[in-house]
Amino acid sequence: MCSELSADLPDEDLGECLDDAIDMYRMGSKPRCEEVEYLGMVREAIDRIEEGE
Predict the structure, then answer these.
(1) pLDDT score of 9 more than 70
(2) CA-to-CA distance for 36 and 3, rounded, in angstroms?
(3) What does DSSP assign to residue 16?
(4) CA contacts within 13 A on the Cβ side of 20
(5) What DSSP state is assigned to residue 1?
(6) Is pLDDT of 46 > 80?
(7) What is the pTM of this model?
(8) What is the rounded CA–CA span in Å between residue 17 and residue 9?
(9) Among candidates 16, 11, 18, 17, which has minimal Cα distance to 41?
(10) Contact at 8 Å (CB) between 35 and 42?
């Protein structure tokens, strides 16, 4: 399931765990609009995994 949810996220941004993507992310490393979208996608994927979807 994790691989399915993370398919839309850039591989270089992901570790073994999606939480790593949030923990290791450097604010300002992407343009603001991309940053908001990226962090939202990661958070949504984490939430869906936790909920068992």
Answers:
(1) no
(2) 21
(3) S
(4) 9
(5) -
(6) yes
(7) 0.61
(8) 13
(9) 18
(10) no
Token pair for 41:
């996608």
Two tokens, residue 26:
């450097």
Sign of CA dihedral 5, 11, 36, 17: positive
Assess whether pLDDT exceeds 80 at residue 33: yes
- With tokens 């343009």, the residue in question is 31
Cβ–Cβ < 8 Å for 21, 30: no
Q: The dihedral of CA 45, 17, 3, 38: what is its sign?
A: positive
User: What is the per-residue pLDDT across 14-24, written as a single tens digit (0 to 9) for each?
Assistant: 556 778 778 88
> Is-contact 1 49, C-beta < 8 A?
yes
